[in-house]
Design brief:
With 349 residues, this protein is of the alpha/beta class. The chain has helices spanning 11-22, 53-60, 75-85, 122-140, 161-170, 190-202, 221-231, 243-248, 271-276, 284-298, 316-343; strands spanning 2-6, 26-31, 44-47, 66-69, 91-95, 144-149, 151-153, 175-178, 187-189, 209-213, 238-241.
Length: 349
């Protein structure tokens, strides 16, 4: 089978390409320029722009059996793919995101309504990609499958949440966690995502469907941080600060790994992806260990992490000031309340 991976030179794409090659597929990668990853030598690199109709028409002449689209971020980009390849491929696998769901139910299922507010930015744009695919399937049975992962972690992640924690642990800085940190993280190991994307290329009776994807093991933010600390054998300092205060101070909550405002609780139904696309998760402990070892081998400060992707960024030096002041303020508040309480006249019994 001949497969084109759009975005195959990036983080998720490179793992997907490797998985396809392991299965013996002929793999081509569409790239616009220089890639930051070392690509396997047995892949064919095609230079081109996914937004160029002429470039896509030239691609169509390659007679691909399937396309995996890793980096469609607008409805227009998806519609151009549909227009060019409808009737010319047997499967189109679209990498979506769990963020398209409004999360109106617990657990979140594939039937949840999608985001309709244009102000939602990324989530709305990815939902528009899915709506374009739904329309194409209804019109001409365009053979798409959507994969909706939760947060993705693993080796080569240039938005790594885990490396965010590592940098602070190694520098002996406190880790600020919005609210309690007692809610689950929802994440999936990148190599597991790559396997699901590859499975979707040839799975039967999945056209026109979307699949939620997340690891089955429930781990809270606090536990996740503690597990990383144990792996590198270092003590860790965690400071919980209300998300409403962090926002007032100018922090972007997207800067904090896995945090949702006010400890929003999410549960994700993954029965469909396990049944239809044979999702079998790597054990969390192994996936986390492999991820941490990869960053340690390369040096955590030489690799980027999530705070560099979501401006405005509060400098680490200001984080340290906040930690010091918050500790001092909470201690003063506790002392004042204690004094007031103990000095009040107790009512006679």
């Amino acid at each position: 089978m001949k497969v084109l991976v759009i975005g195959g030179s990036g983080y998720i794409g490179s793992h997907t390409v490797e998985e396809l090659l392991r299965r013996g597929y002929e793999v081509c990668i569409l790239v616009r320029g220089i890639t930051t990853h070392q690509l396997p030598t047995n892949t064919r690199i095609i230079k081109g722009d996914r937004h160029s109709p002429d470039d896509l028409i030239r691609l169509r002449a390659e007679h691909f059996d399937a396309i995996i689209d890793i980096n469609a971020y607008t409805r227009e980009a998806t519609q151009l793919i549909i227009k060019t390849f409808d009737g010319f491929i047997s499967r189109f696998v679209h990498l979506s995101t769990l963020a398209v769901c409004q999360r109106s139910s617990i657990p979140v299922t594939e039937d949840d309504a999608m985001v309709t507010n244009p102000n939602a930015g990324y989530a709305y744009d990815k939902a528009e990609c899915e709506r374009a695919l739904r329309w194409a399937y209804a019109k001409s049975r365009f053979p798409y499958v959507c994969i909706r992962p939760s947060a993705v972690y693993g080796e080569r992640d240039r938005l790594s949440r885990e490396n965010y924690y590592l940098k602070r642990m190694i520098s002996d800085d406190a880790i600020i966690v919005p609210d309690s940190g007692a809610v689950p993280i929802w994440a999936v190991y990148v190599k597991d995502l790559a396997k699901v994307l590859a499975n979707a290329v040839s799975a039967k009776n999945v056209e026109g469907r979307c699949y939620n994807l997340s690891q089955p093991e429930v781990v809270t933010i606090n536990q996740h941080i503690a597990n990383i600390a144990r792996l590198i054998q270092t003590p860790v300092k965690i400071l919980h600060i209300p998300s409403r205060l962090l926002e007032r101070l100018g922090f972007n909550l997207a800067h904090f790994p896995y945090a949702l405002p006010n400890d929003e609780l999410i549960l994700i139904d993954t029965r469909a992806v396990r049944a239809d696309l044979q999702f079998a998760a790597t054990p969390y402990a192994q996936a986390l260990r492999d991820t941490i070892e990869w960053f340690l081998e390369r040096g955590v400060d030489s690799e980027p992490s999530i705070e560099e992707a979501f401006p405005p960024v509060i400098p680490r030096s200001r984080e340290r000031v906040l930690v010091e002041r918050y500790h001092k303020a909470t201690q003063e508040l506790e002392d004042r309340l204690t004094d007031e309480w103990l000095n009040e006249a107790l009512p006679e019994l």
